[in-house]
Amino acid sequence: MLASLIHPRLWLALTLLAAGIGLSVVAWNGPADAMLMPRVVLAIWCAMALTLTIIEALRHAPSPRSSLSPLPLLMAAVLLAAMTMDTLGFLLPALVLVALTLWLFRVRRTLPLLVGTALIGGGLWFLFHHVLLIRLPAMLNSGVI
């Protein structure tokens, strides 16, 4: 029983749940109008993390031959992209993050990778900037250019 509680996927689920709860506390203490969407997203995050935690706690420990999950790499890339958006703008970190995500989802051919990155990354910027009217910086805004 104890061996099944120590496997890394359970700790990852618990970490996601703790991060979601911590960010939810910050979001619920913020202004009501600006934090409506983050509150909804964080509520979904916490529900998914809680579900994942319960599923992983009920499963048996994975075999040592199982392959490593790309989830920690993707989580680190999302965190790095969020931290660099302040200086690099939205478009550059989003393009890198989308390209990495497509690569981790085994889109390895060059043309689909480039087209998917341009359409998804640029499409996200277009959605926020023109449809939702949330003005995101497009390129470098740190005074470099």
How does the SSE layout of this entry go?
Layout (H helix, E strand, L loop, with lengths): L7 H21 L7 H23 L12 H18 L2 H14 L5 H22 L14
What does the overall shape look like? flat
Largest sheet: none
**How many separate helices?**
5
β-strand amount: under 5%
From the alpha carbons, calculate the radius of gyration and give it in angstroms.
18 Å
Distance between the termini: 57 Å
The arrangement of helices and strands along the chain is HHHHH
DSSP, total strands: 0
Mean of residue pLDDT?
78
Structural class computed from helices and strand pairing: mainly alpha
Spans of at least 5 consecutive residues with low confidence: none
Helix content: 55-70%
Task: Give an overview in words.
The termini are far apart. 10% of the residues are buried. It is flat, with a radius of gyration of 18 Å. The chain is mostly helical. The model has no long low-confidence stretch (mean pLDDT 78). It has five helices and no strands. The chain has helices spanning 8-28, 36-58, 71-88, 91-104, 110-131.
